[in-house]
Design a protein that fits this description.
Layout (H helix, E strand, L loop, with lengths): L27 H41 L5 H37 L1
Length: 111
């Protein structure tokens, strides 16, 4: 009989050795799938990070120009500053996610 987690009962012998639930058994297919998933996540996050950095640099340039010219519309400069802060926060969030993914990748590549 199966337990609620969906795993076969340990009392019943498994007929197929590939479906063994022995925790000491290493499953290379699952490990490679997890590794590929983490690598894909890192690639996605790296692309998002590059896009955010480029956008942040453009916002910084616009804000610098507005400040240098003593921009006559302070609300626009204020909006640019708020947008820049928002981008910086989003970039920090993506950097943190990327750091976590890279740690997972290191852990998986050690196994």
């Amino acid at each position: 009989m199966d337990n609620p987690c969906g795993e076969p009962n340990q009392d019943a012998p498994s007929r197929d050795p590939r479906k063994s639930t022995d925790p000491l058994t290493f499953d290379p297919v699952r490990a490679l799938e997890e590794f590929a998933s983490h690598v894909a996540s890192i690639a996605t996050l790296s692309g998002e990070r590059a896009r955010l950095i480029k956008r942040s640099q453009a916002e910084s340039t616009d804000l610098r120009k507005a400040t240098d010219r003593t921009f006559q519309y302070p609300s626009v400069a204020k909006r640019l500053k708020a947008g820049k802060e928002e981008l910086d926060n989003e970039l920090a969030r993506v950097d943190e996610k990327l750091h976590v993914q890279r740690q997972c990748k290191r852990i998986l590549s050690k196994n």
